[in-house]
Amino acid sequence: MADIAVVGPGAIGSVAALAAQQTGRHSVTLCARRDPGALRVVDDLTSTVTELEAPILTSPDQVAGPAEWVLLAVKAQQTDGAAGYLDALCKPSTTVVALQNGVEHIERVAPYANDAHVLPAIVWISAEPTGPGEVTIRNNISSMIQVPAGPDGEEFARLLEGAPAVQVALVSDFTTAAWRKLTTNAIAGLMAAAGKRAVVYQRPDVRELALALATETLAVARAEGAALPESEAEALVGIFEAMAPDIGSSILFDRLAGRELEWDARNGVVRRLGRRHGIPTPVSDVLVPLLAAASDG
Ligand SMILES: NC(=O)C1=CN([C@@H]2O[C@H](COP(=O)(O)OP(=O)(O)OC[C@H]3O[C@@H](n4cnc5c(N)ncnc54)[C@H](OP(=O)(O)O)[C@@H]3O)[C@@H](O)[C@H]2O)C=CC1
Ligand SMILES: CC(C)(CO)C(=O)C(=O)O
């Protein structure tokens, strides 16, 4: 039995809370910034609907004390907004699992975590907000969370062991795994730019653009120490080409809803780190300002 606080019970936070609930072993609290009322998770394969049973807090003032586990699932750019919750929930023995896209989890989260352990996580879950208080798991990928092999990762795997909603996998080369996922997220930035779901990758011109974007992202990845050959670009673009045309991405959902975009953690980072290494990133040089401008509201 562990105390788990889920900070940011949106798409991924709800699936993480569902997994914790499914184990039947833990005490779960949801930490939101507004009261979403009841929350439920729908599985699009089985049409199973599960209500989340955990209590929902709406302010850090309501936190009773530090938690053993914090599952942080706010968007990257919302991390500083969650500082109050992190301060109330974290002490040095807490583990904060950063369930966020990007490759900068520790730099982003550690400043708010009161010396807690920060476990970066790569989230391979396709979860879409499908109505007030409702999140649907799209089973176009099998739901997996990758964490670095080591004691914290092993404990996290034990925490969610047996939960059908999520499988936790330990990876020995986390840098490579994180950049592989980041490359898919960079490609998904094209959905947000076009305002269209995966159908957009059926266009030959967008496919070509996606390939160029993946290729420059992988060049930056290699400079950052990832073992990702240029040939991986075809395979990663292929994931999007093979998707059902109605599959989206979290950055597209925000774009369609007129919300701020997670552009810096997913696309801006390619341009920023490319510049640091002297690697040209011509596609990102155009895409990033457009996403940033769309994010301005
Ligand atoms: N959705 C997906 O399929 C995937 C997402 N990811 C990554 O997971 C992370 C989370 O994304 P996702 O779940 O889609 O995002 P959502 O926008 O669905 O969820 C974020 C949640 O955090 C809440 N929130 C924001 N600020 C605060 C705060 N200060 N205190 C408490 N709660 C707060 C939001 O509240 P409000 O409702 O008020 O905005 C929302 O409920 C991102 O890094 C994303 O890239 C990774 C893989 C797949
Ligand atoms: C589901 C996936 C992999 C698509 O890019 C994702 O990470 C997201 O939506 O943020």
UniProtKB/TrEMBL annotation:
First-tier enzyme category under EC: oxidoreductase
Cross-referenced Pfam families: ApbA, ApbA_C
Catalytic activity: (R)-pantoate + NADP(+) = 2-dehydropantoate + NADPH + H(+)
EC number in record: 1.1.1.169
Domain Ketopantoate reductase C-terminal: start-end pairs: 173-293
Molecular function terms, GO-annotated: 2-dehydropantoate 2-reductase activity
Keywords, sorted A to Z: NADP, Oxidoreductase, Pantothenate biosynthesis
Gene3D superfamilies reported in the protein's UniProt record: N-(1-d-carboxylethyl)-l-norvaline Dehydrogenase, domain 2, NAD(P)-binding Rossmann-like Domain
Pathway connected to this protein: Cofactor biosynthesis; (R)-pantothenate biosynthesis; (R)-pantoate from 3-methyl-2-oxobutanoate: step 2/2
Ranges where the Ketopantoate reductase N-terminal domain occurs: 4-139
Signal peptide (UniProt feature, chain positions): none
Entry function: Catalyzes the NADPH-dependent reduction of ketopantoate into pantoic acid.
NCBIfam families for the chain: apbA_panE, PRK06522.2-2
Family note: Belongs to the ketopantoate reductase family.
Name this polypeptide is given: 2-dehydropantoate 2-reductase
Species of origin: Catenulispora pinistramenti
